[in-house]
Structure formats: C-alpha cells, structure tokens
Amino acid sequence: FPDAADLAERPIDRPSLRALFRRASSSAASSSVASSRVASSRVASSKTAADFAATGLAAGDTSLESARLVLCSLGRHVRRKGFAWFVSNVLPKLPDDVIYVLAGEGPETDNIRAAINEAHLNDRVVLLGRVSDEDLHRLYAGADLFVMPNIHVPGDMEGFGVVMLEAGLSGAPAIAAGIEGILDVIAEGENGVLLPSGDAEAFVDAIMPFYNDHRAVVAAAHRAREYTERTFSWDAVADRYVTTLESLVAGRATR
C-alpha cells in the first residue's frame, strides 16, 4: 500500500485503473468491462474523477463517458453483499457520471449482470471478475469510495471486513451498511459512513456530498488512512492485546 506521503501528494491513480480494465477486458470478454481514457493533465492531490472515462458493453462496442466519481466494491458475489441491490436501487438514482467498479465473482454474478441490463447501466458498471493482489491495490488506489451495501440474509452473516481495512489504507473510505461484521471495522466519520441496510435514499444521500465536493473525498481519504493505521496496525493490535492481558493478570492478583 502507498505510504502517507504518497497519499498526500498524488492524485487518484486512474492510469492504473485503465491498465487493469484492459487486462480484464482481454481475459473476460463476457463481462461488462471498461475501456478507459485518462486526460493528460491532473491537479496534484486532487481526488477528482473528472478526467476518468469508462464504459463497458457486453456486445464489445465501446464508448467513453467522463466519470466524476468512481465507486468500487470487492467480494464474493453472494446475495448478502448487496451488489445486485445496489445496482438496481442506488446507482440509478446517482448522476450519470458516477461509475461503479465491482471485482469478484460468485453465484450472484448472473443476477448482477441481469440487474445491470435491466437498469440499462452497462455504460456505468464495470465487472472486473477475479483480480490479483497487485490489481486489487490499483483498484483501491483508483477509486474514490469503497461501497459495502450489505443486506440481511438469514443464516449468512458478514464477517470481519478485511477488505474495508485494505481500502482504508489505500485512502478509499467506505460507504457501508451498518450491520454484522462491518460494525467491527467502520467507525462513523473516521474511515467511513454507516447506513441503514437496504435504505437506498440513505446511500444516495451519503454519496452525493462527495460527488458535489471532491475536497470532501480528499479529507475522507486522509481520515480513513490515519484511522486504519492508528486502530488496526500490528502495533495498535499488539498494544490492545498487552493491555487486555495485563488487566487479566491484575485481576487474578487481586483475588
């Protein structure tokens, strides 16, 4: 992952996303994978997606649209992740220049594709399929926000959200449903925003301030990185273990 100095100095890594989309396009022609173009000039340290263009058509035809905001998600395509729900219920309510990039695959992939087609969002949703660790870091670095739109599924709960830690370290704060294992990772206003599961309007209302003011994206990226390092680094975790063990020892000594 980039260090704090890199995060402060560089713009979002749209060129890496372009390379990632090209590789995905050549290996998964049936997916909705983007061709992309990056403008030649960028403003340093600006978290803007205005110079990123991405669209993917399953038929192979390609057009370009500028993307003002890039959202990303990663995970096995299962119902509890809420990916199809997000495509059907949230993305259509966002401006046309908001792009959603989704990595992973699973039993819900066909339903996600169906949702994309039904909502006529082939030019706004990028399906990457499975990605390598190297490409995963590029994805995090190239996105503005990481989305966890989980929904309640009886018998299938979300565990500890490692992907949200990875995204936070790369400066991609989370817009997440406040349920299950997500609550163990996301602290409201620190490394993301927690929302009622299944509330499409709440997701739209949480995303739009970042769309309207990219300075908010920059500020949130720094907060997410700093909070994740401060709370979940090995040093921080080790300190909590030591504190817990010391309290247990002290408790036994007083018996």
Q: In a few lines, what is going on in this structure?
A:
The protein is of the alpha/beta class and 255 residues long.
Notable traits:
globular; 42% helix; 9 helices; alpha/beta; 255 residues; six-stranded parallel β-sheet
User: H/E series, N to C?
Assistant: HHEEEEHEHEHEHEEHHH
Strand numbers in spatial order across the main sheet: 6-5-4-7-8-9
Helix residue percentage: 40-55%
Shape: globular
Overall mean confidence score, pLDDT: 76
Poorly predicted runs: 1-11, 24-65
Main sheet?
6 strands, parallel
**Strand segment tally:** 9
How many helix segments?
9
Beta-strand portion reads 15-25%
Question: In terms of structural class, how would the helical and strand content be classed?
Answer: alpha/beta
Distance between the termini: 47 Å
Describe this structure in words.
This protein is α/β, with parallel strands linked by helices. The chain has nine helices and nine strands. The protein has helices at 4-9, 14-27, 83-89, 109-118, 133-142, 162-169, 200-212, 214-232, 234-253, and strands at 35-38, 52-55, 66-67, 69-74, 98-103, 125-129, 145-148, 174-177, 192-195. Strand 4, helix 3 (83-89) and strand 5 (98-103) form a beta-alpha-beta unit. The model is unreliable at 1-11 and 24-65 (pLDDT under 50).
Topology of this structure?
Elements: H1 4-9, H2 14-27, E1 35-38, E2 52-55, E3 66-67, E4 69-74, H3 83-89, E5 98-103, H4 109-118, E6 125-129, H5 133-142, E7 145-148, H6 162-169, E8 174-177, E9 192-195, H7 200-212, H8 214-232, H9 234-253
Parallel strand pairs: 4-5, 4-7, 5-6, 7-8, 8-9
Antiparallel strand pairs: 1-2, 2-3
